[in-house]
Amino acid sequence: MTKQEQVKAIFIEEAGEIVEKLDVDIIRFEENSNDFNLLNEIFRGVHTLKGNANAFGFTRLGEFVHHFEDLLDYYRSTKESIEANNLELFVESVDVVKEVMGCELNAIEQLPQSYTECLEKIKRLLALKKNISKPMTEQNSVAELNDLASEFGLSSLENEENDIEKSIKFHQALQTDELNLYKIDLNLDIDCYKRGFDYFIFLKILSERTNFLESFFDMKNVKTISEFKSDENGIANVTVVVLTLQRREDIEEIFEFLFEHEFHITQIEPAVIKKADIKIEAALSTAFQTAPSPAPSNANAPKSTIRIDTIKLDELFDSVGELVITQNFIAQNEKIRSIEDEAINRTIETLSKITKKIQDRVMSLRMIAIKDTFEKMKRVVRDTSKKTLKEVHLIVQGEDTEIDKTMIDSLSDPLIHIIRNAIDHGLESNSDERLRAGKNAEGVIALRAFHKSGNIVISVSDDGRGINKERVLQKAIERGIINENENLTDSQIFSLIMQPGFSTAEAVSDLSGRGVGLDVVKTSIEKLRGKIEIDSDEGCGTTFSIVLPLTLAIIDGMLVRTADEIYIIPTLSVVESFRPEKEIVHIIKGRGEFVNLRGECIPIIRLSTVFDIKTQKMEAWESILVCVETEGGRIAVMIDELLGRQQVVIKTLGKSLAKIKEISGGAILGNGDIALILNVDELRPLNEISHV
Amino acid sequence: MSTEPNTSQSKKARYLTFFLGDEQYGIAIERVKEIIAMMKITAVPKTPQFMRGVINLRGSIIPVVDTRLRFAMPSREADMHTAIIIVEIDKINIGFIVDHVEEVASIDESNLSEPPKFGSYIDTDFISAVAQMGENVVMILDVLKLFEADEIVDLEQIQNLIED
């Protein structure tokens, strides 16, 4: 990578993060549009993005965020409350920013249609705001500096001059590099109406060409109503403060038909070189403008962080794994233990404590709170609820639950999918239907994250109509996924909806809900070594639970032995293990061995046969059966002995051995031996597969 | 083929040489990561016979090939000379079990010749060249061909297909 590319890569990463944060912030802001800290936060994000985009020549993005920034800045500085429809525009703008960024990164010429539309809306709103903002701005700038304002009366000349000065200061604060600030004094002659001019013509022209405009009318020479002449100009002086991109000549051109004494333009330099008495405040304002990050909210001062390549983290993780094993070896070595030396024993003790500590710390490096992902989901809920015209109330619990970073990254898409499904198909189609069922009109979606027996569970629940088991069964039989007379448990029935081929467009409309591509969700969760459990109560709602291991690198495994080989079965898939009575083991001709477990007929898979290992234990009732849940239903894996349960660090066997489907990896045990981890989904015997 | 002493133009390359039975073989030294003594090997099911299994090399799991079986030579009990040569191929480490490691030899390029078409146990595809070293003939192995990353499993699958 060249230097340029590297820098660009950093930009892309940073911009991506900003956009992601914007996405989250804007939704939070939508919920609470009075939170000006949040608005500042959004403003800062957009501001940084603008700088970055322009630096990398992404002019289209730059142009858009520039105007968006202006708009945000308007609200930020006026503290004006934001109208609902304009709030919508904000959200829309963030969407456009996202899309345009995609276009810029992939060098796509065609910008989305929303780009111009949205940009127009922003510009229009800004123009509108600037026009009606004269009194508003004045008021607010006064409010902002109310300690000064209270010292003066309202209608004196002094006050007006003061207001002008304040206005200048105020605009200086908004001034950026490319903007010029002018103070224009207009003193139109008494006969100007006859020449076809009045102040408002100029104000109108100015307002069209400038970004900010504030005007001050000197009304003190206006004659009383009895002396007032409609054809004479009674207003001696109007002072206009404008912030504009235009140069002085352009401004002068506006007034070219006036006499020279009738107008006077003063260009005001940026704030830093202002008069002494306002210097401090001006400097503060400039600082606020040019260095947006150390903003007023000191309360949430940024944490100091560094970026680390995850590959490095993985390497560190591996090394620590070795350290732990080596340390275990020392601690358990008979010869070392026989040394009766207190100092050595103490050192070994300390070593194991430190090792444990390092291991915990390193593990925690990979863990981040699921908060950000949940925040993103708020957006999904909001959008889906608007699209489906269903009112939805979102409950979020356990956002501080920490989860492996690599998992978080691949968790978003499945979650989005499940949430959309829950709102679209899970909830009743309209509020009438809900009211009839005795529920609140507003549907409830609950997003939860919690720990459960060594795993992390992320669940999405709705209080909708639930899954109609009969129809699922019927559909599955129609589609040939199951046979007619198969006896399935509830959870097996529910999991049918995640079978590939089950969900087609037709299924969605036919069924009581749930549909598109849940099999994709299932696959991506399985890639994370997790699984999905569905629980549903017809009429009361459905819960999708994603059960994930604590980290990708470690699984909880059950150590089993067959002949001299030790294998690991992931505990996540183990249902139970038992030594069968002779009576419940049956051999069905042509279909192999089965065990009748409380009425359920489960095929027995001899590990020794699958892996071609010689074992002494020839009969199922002499061995142990481990009942595991697999994609194709339950199977009972026949092994010689259960050795115990242990957390193991998963290692790959390398590219060359990755193709062995039955094995998903290896783990190094405490004594340094390697045990292979079984992929139970692939253990079903060949003859069964050929049957299907 | 010249047997003259090295001139300044001659290019020398270094090879790690080892024995399988009576035959001496060489592997380009750049590919050799390390040589370790024989250690416990965990068998991996569903692999061809020459794939002996995996070892734990300081925390990494590395597949190990029984070179004798790979060359269709009879298997042999490990003894104190048996060693595993760890070779890096395509950024993967792979171990090769050999009878014993001999030396690192510098071989002049001019001493290399085309492999013969007969006279050795092994398929000549694996041999990239033959070098004369004093009285001995060293067969220089092409490790890439010896261990195509995908081959082990592919072979197995082909065997399965045939059996089916």
Please give a quick description of this structure.
The complex is a heterodimer of chains A (692) and B (164). Chain A is α+β, with helices and mostly antiparallel strands and 692 residues long.
User: Major sheet of chain B: order of its strands?
Assistant: 8-1-2-11-10-9
Number of helices of chain A: 23
Sheet/helix structural class of chain B: mainly beta
The proportion of strand residues of chain A reads 15-25%
Overall mean pLDDT of chain B stands at 80
Helix content of chain B: 10-25%
- Mean pLDDT of chain A equals 77
* Main β sheet profile of chain A: 6 strands, mixed
Quick one: how many beta strands of chain A? 22
| Biggest beta-sheet profile of chain B | 6 strands, mixed
Order of helices and strands of chain B: EEEEEHEEEEEEHH
Quaternary organisation: heterodimer
**How many domains make up the coordinates of chain A?**
5
CATH topology of chain B: OB fold (Dihydrolipoamide Acetyltransferase, E2P)
Overall geometry of chain A: elongated
User: Could you state the CATH homologous superfamily of chain B?
Assistant: CheA-289, Domain 4
Second CATH tier, the architecture of the largest domain in chain A: 2-Layer Sandwich
Describe this structure as you would to a colleague.
Chain A has 692 residues and is α+β, with helices and mostly antiparallel strands. Chain A has 5 domains: 3-132, Four Helix Bundle (Hemerythrin (Met), subunit A), CATH 1.20.120; 142-289, Alpha-Beta Plaits (2-Layer Sandwich); 310-368, Helix Hairpins; 370-549, Heat Shock Protein 90, CATH 3.30.565; 554-691, SH3 Domains (SH3 type barrels), CATH 2.30.30.40. Chain B has helices at residues 67-70, 143-146, 151-163, and strands at 12-20, 23-28, 32-37, 51-57, 60-66, 83-89, 92-98, 100-108, 112-113, 127-133, 136-141. Chain B contains 3 helices and 11 strands, in the order βββββαββββββαα. In chain B, the strands form 2 sheets. Chain B has a 6-stranded mixed beta sheet. Chain B has a 5-stranded mixed beta sheet with strand order 3-6-7-5-4. Chain B has 164 residues and is mostly beta strands. Mean pLDDT of chain B is 80; it is low at 1-8 and 152-159. The chains are: A alpha+beta (692), B mainly beta (164). Chains A and B meet through helix 11, strand 21 and strand 22 of A and strand 4, strand 5, strand 7 and helix 3 of B.
